[in-house]
Design brief:
The chain has 15 helices and 22 strands. It is globular, with a radius of gyration of 24 Å. The protein is an alpha/beta fold. Helix content is 39%, strand content 22%. It starts with a strand and ends in a 14-residue tail after the last strand. It has 2 domains: 270 residues, Aldehyde Dehydrogenase, Chain A, domain 1; 185 residues, 3-Layer(aba) Sandwich (Aldehyde Dehydrogenase, Chain A, domain 2), CATH 3.40.309. The relative contact order is 0.14. The strands form 6 sheets. The protein has a 7-stranded mixed beta sheet, with helices on both faces. A 5-stranded parallel beta sheet has the order 10-9-8-11-12, sandwiched between helices. A 3-stranded mixed beta sheet has the order 1-5-4, with helices on one face. The protein binds NADP nicotinamide-adenine-dinucleotide phosphate (NAP). NADP nicotinamide-adenine-dinucleotide phosphate (NAP) binds next to helix 7 and helix 8.
Length: 495
């Protein structure tokens, strides 16, 4: 069991509160993964002061030099890939092949940053006036607050930390209380790779105290938040009052459509991965399966058979398909939705209960669950469940399927299985989601492409790729007049 400390101004320090909290393995609650400082506002204020002090020097280092540090981060993460992945499986439960993927996404994001630092460009444009040039450049903003969820303990922090720092900002990160260890290990790597003291600070603690403290601090210029829509709305409200920049990546209720002309075997492996990967705890998880009427019964039969064969267990066992839920409260919340689904009249055909056999008796396991004959307006078809529960809905035809797909307040990811080229293109056009997959599941984003959602999934920003850098930089428009005279735009004429 490791004792973690806050990272403030390059030093590992205990909280001034003297309090700590434990993080336990959700597959085996007897195992304490780590003990962490339960920080208070004094710790946060120290971290913000350190980040503020470090900012002027850090922003003056040229982008390509900052990007060299990112390359070193990628190399160190690669060396430690297995160690990081095992810690992640122990702290949040997802199976080892997925935590390796999570770590790899962080490595890819660092490599992307190492290149972006040499090519991040502005525009040059012609002027209306002679002997004058116009251009744009991008500059950092200052000290950022980064707030992350528990379901991607390495990847999501890297989506924020790397573009934020590469752009010349400094930051404080508050990781989720359920997954603090991964961020602790990541911060250590950044420190060893040469990120100067104070540029990245880690403050552990609760969202209500440390998260809220960031929102309200006058020296924080922006908040980058990934988490639930409820908390996201609260953050947007507080940031709106002080005009802090605020990027919000929130919940999803993603649907996979299976049309009757689709390759059903392909659609089947897609939904198994999309719905039960990460035990359904992905923002992009397939939570609704929308099947066109002619193949509805056949597909459900195929699906039930395969779902019942999924192996549950400790994610460190390479043969396991589905790990535990992250916590007791998450299991209670998922089971609560199963009870709601039953009351609403949906038909439960498999799962619907905790799984407590053998070694799983000491973890937060839940049987992969399928509800069929779900109506599009039922709560289990509308609200984010964030667990291994799939709601299956019958669609009359393609148009009906698209209406059902779009009929939620969320808009993160969608998937359409069809071999009809025309329908595929129409679906791409009509889907009200930030990400659309054709003949692939709702999960599987790549770090060099924009990532984010429409409607209540966010506030219009996109992480991933070049668009992440738009969040963390400010556009500056520059006019350079080399005429030696006063020239007046819109007033001087050529007659
Ligand atoms: P959450 O409960 O909203 O928490 C997210 C983070 O916010 C945690 O670090 C949490 O701290 C902190 N927090 C809680 N209350 C706060 C407050 N009042 N002010 C500031 N920060 C506060 O979400 P979660 O359960 O960790 O993650 C699951 C959710 O994230 C799902 O809705 C999922 O869809 C969404 N998600 C979205 C994306 C995306 O890119 N769109 C990606 C992944 C996950 P504590 O841990 O200490 O409570």
């Amino acid at each position: 069991m490791k004792q973690y400390k806050n990272l403030i101004n390059g030093k590992l320090v205990d909280s001034k509160s003297g309090r700590t909290f434990e993080n336990r393995n959700p597959a085996d609650w007897d195992e304490v993964v780590g003990v962490f400082p339960k920080s208070n506002i004094d710790d946060l204020n120290d971290a913000i002061a350190a980040a503020k002090k470090a900012y002027p020097k850090w922003r003056s280092i040229p982008w390509p030099k900052r990007s060299e540090i990112m390359r070193s981060v990628a190399e160190r993460m690669l060396e430690k890939k297995e160690e990081l992945s095992q810690i992640m499986t122990r702290e949040m439960g997802k199976v080892i092949k997925e935590t390796r993927g999570d770590t790899q996404e962080g490595i890819d994001t660092a490599l992307y940053a190492s290149v972006e630092g040499r090519k991040y460009f502005g525009y040059t444009l012609p002027s209306e006036l002679p002997n004058k040039m116009c251009m744009t450049r991008r500059d950092p903003l200052g000290v950022w607050g980064l707030i992350t969820p528990w379901n991607f303990p390495i990847a999501i922090p890297t989506w924020k930390i790397f573009p934020c720092l590469l752009s010349g900002n400094t930051a404080i990160i508050k990781p989720a209380t359920d997954t603090p260890a991964s961020v602790g290990e990541l911060a250590q790597i950044l420190h060893e790779a040469g990120v100067p003291d104070g540029v990245l600070n880690v403050v552990y603690g609760g969202g209500g105290e440390i998260g809220e403290g960031m929102l309200n601090h006058p020296d924080i210029v922006g908040i980058s938040f990934t988490g639930s829509s409820d908390i996201g709305m609260r953050i947007g409200e507080v940031c709106g009052k002080t005009l802090k920049r605020c990027s919000l990546e929130l919940g999803g209720k993603n649907g996979q459509v299976v049309l009757s002309d689709a390759n059903l075997e392909l659609a089947l492996v897609g939904v198994l991965w999309g719905a039960y990967g990460t035990t359904g705890q992905r923002c992009t998880a397939t939570s609704r399966l929308i099947i066109e009427e002619p193949v509805y019964d056949t597909f459900i039969e195929m699906l039930k058979d395969r779902v019942e064969k999924l192996k549950l267990g400790n994610g460190l066992d390479e043969s396991v398909d589905v790990g535990p839920l992250v916590s007791e409260s998450q299991r209670e919340s998922v089971h609560g939705y199963v009870e709601i689904g039953k009351k609403e009249g949906a038909k439960l055909i498999t799962g619907g209960e905790a799984y407590t056999e053998g070694e799983c008796s000491k973890g937060w396991f839940y049987r992969p669950t399928i509800f069929i004959d779900v109506k599009p307006d039922m709560r289990i078809a509308q609200e984010e469940i964030f667990g291994p529960v799939l709601s299956v809905i019958k669609a009359r035809d393609f148009k009906d399927a698209m209406d059902i797909l779009n009929g939620t307040v969320y808009g993160l990811s969608s998937s359409i299985y069809t071999n009809d080229l025309n329908k595929a293109h129409k679906a791409i056009e009509r889907a009200e989601t930030g990400i659309v997959y054709i003949n692939a599941p709702t999960i599987g984003a790549e770090c060099h492409l924009p990532f984010g959602g429409m409607k209540q999934t966010g506030n219009g920003h996109r992480e991933g790729g070049w668009t992440a850098y738009e969040i963390f930089t400010e556009i500056k428009t520059v006019y350079i007049d080399y005429s030696g005279a006063l020239q007046k735009a819109q007033i001087d004429t050529w007659d």
